[in-house]
Automatic annotation (TrEMBL):
It comes from Flavihumibacter petaseus NBRC 106054. One of its GO terms (cellular component) is cytosol. InterPro entries: A-D-PHexomutase_a/b/a-I, A-D-PHexomutase_a/b/a-I/II/III, A-D-PHexomutase_a/b/a-II, A-D-PHexomutase_a/b/a-III, A-D-PHexomutase_C, A-D-PHexomutase_C_sf, A-D-PHexomutase_CS, Alpha-D-phosphohexomutase_SF. One of its GO terms (biological process) is UDP-N-acetylglucosamine biosynthetic process. Its cofactor is Mg(2+). Belongs to the phosphohexose mutase family. Residues 104-206 form the Rhodanese domain. This is Putative phosphoglucosamine mutase. The lineage of its organism: Bacteria, Pseudomonadati, Bacteroidota, Chitinophagia, Chitinophagales.
Amino acid sequence: MTPIDIVRFAAAYGTMLTASNKAATVVIGRDGRISGEMVNHLVAQTLIGLGIKVVDLGLSTTPTVEMAVVWEKADGGIILTASHNPKEWNALKLLNSAGEFISAEAGAQVLDLASRDAFAFVPVDKLGTYTLNDSYLGKHIDAVVNHPLVDAAAIRAKNLKIVVDAVNSTGAIAVPALLKALGVEEVSVLNGEVNGRFAHNPEPLPENLVGLSAEVKKSGASLGIAVDPDVDRLCFVNEDGSMFGEEFTLVAVADYVLQHRPGNTVSNMSSTKALKEITLKHGGEYFPSAVGEVNVVKKMKESNAVIGGEGNGGIIVPDLHYGRDALIGIGLFLSALARHKNGIKSFRSRYPDYFISKNKIELEKSIDVKEIFEKIQTKYKKHPVNTEDGLKIEFDNDWVHLRTSNTEPIIRIYAESNFETTANNIALRLMQDIKEFM
């Protein structure tokens, strides 16, 4: 986004809020991106120009801002982050008064106001105020440590040695502080300078974590932890440098939670089938949702789920807050690991080895994706399909999910099977179908 885009969308969002409350309060916070400070100033001063009280958390995390909105009894929040995207990106994550992402309807209202430059700026004597409050990350960490299912004593007794890849963002502040509060004495941080000059692609995928993997193995650490720049996604590295698997972050945490709180679970339909299997084993019911945190949260509320999230390492614990949160994910995961006699690789062996092949095809503007999906659905009409979010096709125990991205001009193709080659072959077959019907 250009600076003009930032001002326009911040003004549209603030105008929407002040329509119902002229004395609105908005919490803001940012990750460690190069453009973060610039974007912070633009957003804060735009909101002040609308008469809004701004509470700035400074360098923070997405889940911290979400929780601070509730603690401040604010009308909304804006997180300044482009999540896992490269350093040249930035974005505004818009929150409602519950500290959750705004609805599609509210989003449409923001877009409409922005398109018309219909902003409600105030006279000079009614300008808003600005307060810097950097205490909320500490409060967030305290809330994690004091969560009923987080066992800091057991974690401390495990004497873990942990390597953290903070990818030059606010995870370098949040994760070591949390680990210290949980009693982990030996913590080393890779890419710990918060400068936004990401040492590698910031998405916490295996191909981007070779440095973390090597350091865990070299240093004899118990495990490695990787987060994305705004600390809402989480994955682990085993003691031998192998990947625990981002899909199984949620599975392991859910297994632990369900042992103590039987109930229902939710994940998006691009996530592993292992969560459904774990849920059924504990006597609960599993519900799939459309991709996107707001959709997962909606389904969790509808199904009264006790745990949910996304297969990209996003953990949502509703009694803490309805948002993906790597910090509570770390607390619960380490609590589960602390009860396991052996190391993390042995802990991973509790769960099946399913493989998800993740692929994408770039689109040209003229492509009619709806027509392509209809043709593919017709071709596979003998198989069960779900069209709630793109097109999901089931093949006995395997599945493939096709959907357009919310942020890029691409079609994502995810396929899961018990065997890696089978998952790859399913994905390749559907990618050929897409190209054929383009």
